[in-house]
Write a structure and sequence with these properties.
Layout lengths: L15 H16 L5 H7 L3 H10 L10 H7 L7 H11 L4 H10 L1 H9 L13 H8 L5 H16 L4
Length: 161
């Protein structure tokens, strides 16, 4: 059973395999009442990139669980649900500084993902299109723009709206 949101843009562009992966992750997130469910839904076509980046967040006591991200990307969906749940439950206590460090390590990947998210899709986070544009409006160097966008992603990630 696909969520109704999967019929809307941009998720409608996903291939069937991508949609199946998306729904698996969505179901897992819902089962632990993950607060970033909307964020994952908004990523749509970028769900695989999100999974790969999430898997890169190294938490010592969860090193053995990193394989879930790899399996999911490789379309081997067996035996990953429990690992996903454990991983995501632990992710809820991820510190903002740790997340920011991870963002900076893979800055260009994250920026690429955020670039694909239309500003109008961010209303639910209290980060309307105008807010995003104002946040990014700066005459500074490209590097600083990327850094500002990274900061914006952190704000988005920790938004509780």
């Amino acid at each position: 059973i696909f969520h109704h949101c999967c019929l809307k843009k941009p998720i409608v562009k996903c291939d069937l395999i991508g949609l199946n992966k998306f729904n698996l992750v969505t179901n897992v997130l819902e089962s632990v009442q993950w607060p970033l469910l909307k964020f994952l839904r908004l990523l749509g076509d970028n769900i695989n990139q999100w999974i790969q980046l999430l898997a890169k967040i190294d938490m010592p006591h969860l090193k053995t669980l990193q394989i879930w991200g790899t399996k999911l990307v490789q379309q081997d969906l067996s035996h990953v649900s429990v690992l996903c749940v454990e991983r995501l439950i632990s992710m809820r206590s991820l510190s903002e500084q740790h997340f920011k460090d991870v963002l900076l390590q893979d800055q260009h990947d994250w920026v690429h993902i955020v670039d694909k998210m239309h500003p109008s899709m961010l209303d639910g986070f209290g980060l309307e299109g105008s807010s995003y544009e104002q946040f990014m409006a700066t005459p500074d160097a490209v590097d600083l723009k990327h850094l500002r966008k990274t900061e914006w992603v952190v704000q988005l990630f920790y938004s509780q709206k």
